[in-house]
């Protein structure tokens, strides 16, 4: 296996790691941490499937106090990457390391960091860059939260600073809803708010894997009928089933299209619904959901949409 940038850098003893724990911010589940003794590593990842993957391998979850070293694994969102570096500067007492792919903007982050920090070294390899510096100095970056229609969004959430057109379409087309409802992949709460506008709804579970989105939900949705759950929607189970599930399922992981992820959401919806319950789904037209829906539900009907999106109602989940 080719050595990762982290392994190469640590093998060459540049940077020299201070003794003690290394906190790693947002490492995807397939990030190579083999250069570090697992007992030294603390993982800080807000995306539940990645968090769970590291925990299942025995890695500790990060605390909030200071640590000698913080390693930032650069995420796709440029503003989130800057927030993570700023967070690392507050938490690290000895060393900050940043590692990322070119396609995720590591080079521009490197240039931005060199604007205010004496970057001690860098290693370029495998279409990416790793660099490191001592945690002094404060970046003058402005990465404000963005608001839309009175909702707070923040860097790193789906559809930051705008309403997703598919969700807008589904919100406007929902029939009167009642009873217990779930919003699977609730994001910062646009669809959830639309569900709660139905007076017949008695309870809403907002199921979402991204902790940054849950932060927004906490501010955006204060209705006592609603509760937010930090959970992996592909595995979520509940004792009490729902009368309706609404979803605009994810179909990407990082840069990869992953229709299987959306299909796994459909299977969860079928599992979570009462026999009399219905799924209301919006999806990009090109996504291959119909075959799977017919396996999971006895009734599947396209109920609207436009050139870009299809709206589907599925009922009578098969057990
Ligand atoms: C297409 S967005 C829809 C968001 C929101 N419902 C809206 O209308 O704006 C899909 C959401 O699913 C979340 N998500 C992705 N993978 C997930 C998983 N395995 N479990 C739960 N939520 C997930 C994403 O963070 C994102 O917020």
Description:
- The protein has 319 residues and is of the alpha/beta class.
- The protein has two domains: 5-133, Vaccinia Virus protein VP39 (Rossmann fold); 146-317, Vaccinia Virus protein VP39 (Rossmann fold), CATH 3.40.50.
- 27% of the residues lie in helices and 33% in strands.
- The protein has nine helices and 18 strands.
- It has helices at residues 5-11, 48-56, 78-91, 106-114, 165-173, 190-196, 211-220, 259-272, 290-296; strands spanning 22-25, 41-44, 60-61, 67-73, 92-101, 119-125, 128-133, 146-148, 151-153, 179-184, 201-208, 226-230, 242-247, 252-253, 256-257, 273-284, 297-305, 309-317.
- The strands form four sheets. The protein has a seven-stranded mixed beta sheet, with helices on both faces. It has a seven-stranded mixed beta sheet with strand order 12-11-10-13-16-18-17. A two-stranded antiparallel ribbon has the order 8-9.
- Helix 7 links the parallel strand 11 (201-208) and strand 12 (226-230).
- The model has no long low-confidence stretch (mean pLDDT 95).
- The protein binds S-adenosylmethionine (SAM).
Main features:
alpha/beta, 9 helices, elongated, Rossmann fold, 2 domains, 319 residues, binds S-adenosylmethionine, seven-stranded mixed beta sheet, 18 strands
Provide the succession of SSEs. Answer: HEEHEEHEHEEEEHEHEHEEEEHEHEE
Spatial separation of the terminal alpha carbons: 43 Å
Biggest sheet: strands side by side, in what order?
A: 3-2-1-4-5-7-6
Low-confidence stretches: none
The major sheet is characterized as:
7 strands, mixed
CATH architectural group of the largest domain: 3-Layer(aba) Sandwich
Q: Based on DSSP secondary structure assignment, what is the total number of beta strands?
A: 18
Cα radius of gyration in angstroms: 22 Å
Helix content: 25-40%
Total DSSP helices: 9
- What structural class should be given to the helix and strand makeup? alpha/beta
How much strand content do the residues show?
Answer: 25-35%
- CATH homolog superfamily of the largest domain: Vaccinia Virus protein VP39
| Total separate domains | 2
Any ligands, ions or cofactors bound here, and which? S-adenosylmethionine
- Globally, the shape reads elongated
């Amino acid at each position: 296996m080719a050595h990762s940038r982290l392994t190469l850098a640590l093998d060459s003893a540049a940077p020299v790691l201070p003794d003690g724990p290394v906190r790693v911010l947002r490492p995807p589940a397939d990030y190579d941490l083999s250069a570090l003794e697992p007992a030294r590593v603390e993982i800080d990842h807000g995306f539940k499937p990645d968090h769970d993957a590291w925990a299942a391998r025995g890695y500790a979850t990060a605390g909030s106090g200071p640590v000698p070293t913080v390693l930032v694994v650069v995420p796709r969102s440029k503003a989130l990457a800057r927030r993570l570096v700023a967070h690392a500067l507050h938490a690290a007492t000895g060393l900050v390391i940043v590692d990322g792919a070119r396609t995720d903007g590591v080079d521009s982050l490197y240039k931005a960091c060199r604007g205010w920090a004496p970057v001690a070294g860098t290693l370029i390899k495998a279409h990416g860059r790793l660099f490191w510096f001592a945690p002094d100095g404060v970046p003058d970056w402005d990465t404000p939260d963005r608001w839309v229609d009175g909702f707070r969004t923040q860097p790193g959430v789906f559809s930051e600073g705008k309403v997703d057109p598919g969700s807008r379409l589904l919100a406007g087309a929902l029939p009167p809803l009642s009873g217990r409802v779930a919003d699977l992949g609730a994001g910062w709460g646009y669809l959830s708010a639309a569900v709660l506008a139905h007076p017949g709804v008695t309870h809403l579970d907002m199921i979402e894997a991204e902790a940054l989105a849950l932060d927004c939900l906490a501010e955006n949705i204060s209705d006592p009928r609603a509760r937010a759950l930090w959970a992996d929607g592909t595995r979520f189970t509940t004792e009490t089933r729902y009368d309706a599930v609404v979803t605009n399922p994810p179909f990407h992981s990082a840069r990869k299209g992953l229709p299987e992820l959306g299909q796994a959401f459909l299977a969860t919806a079928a599992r979570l619904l009462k026999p009399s319950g219905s799924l209301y789904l919006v999806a990009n037209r090109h996504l291959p959901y119909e075959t799977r829906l017919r396996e999971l539900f006895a009734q599947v009907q396209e109920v609207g949409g436009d050139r870009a999106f299809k709206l589907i109602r599925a009922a009578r989940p098969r057990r």
